[in-house]
Amino acid sequence: KAGRTLQDIQKAHAQHPEYLLGCFNRKEFCGAVFGLDQEADLFVGELAIETKFRGKSIGKKLMEKIEKIARTNHKRKIYLGARDGAEEFYLKLGYKPSLFIQLHKKDRPSNFNALLKKYIVRSINERKEGSGLDIKVTLKVDKIDKNLQKKAEKEFNAYNTIFLFEKQFKN
Description:
By secondary structure, this protein is an alpha+beta fold. About 30% of the residues lie in helices and about 40% in strands. Strands 1-2-3-4-8-5-7-6 form an 8-stranded mixed β-sheet, with helices on both faces. The mean pLDDT is about 90.
């Protein structure tokens, strides 16, 4: 599965330059946040802080700034996926978690519908990915639970699970 390319980011930046923010200490790069316009919402595709600048509130300040820009542009919410270890950071900023599960339709377990009834499902989508169909399920969760993540990955025969986070705005 290919990620975003430099060309993807450049194209998105050309359309919405307000969603690419960088932080510099004099001329030294400290970190950046990059958002993708999703009509009524903003998807934060990247928040990256150079290792030696972590723990100095740069990530928090970048997120606060992109939230302010999103509100100014009348976005309903910001959403993003968090890498392992970053979940607590987003919880502290007031983001609400959900568990995102991706599986190939061909690997869908025979008890798929029964599994869905065990959880509170926020959304379910089928989408063509590469040469096949993928199923994407988002489950409502109240907290970060790595055991639940592992269990869901196994039960659903998932090739990927990640905690998503969102913050809704009151406009």
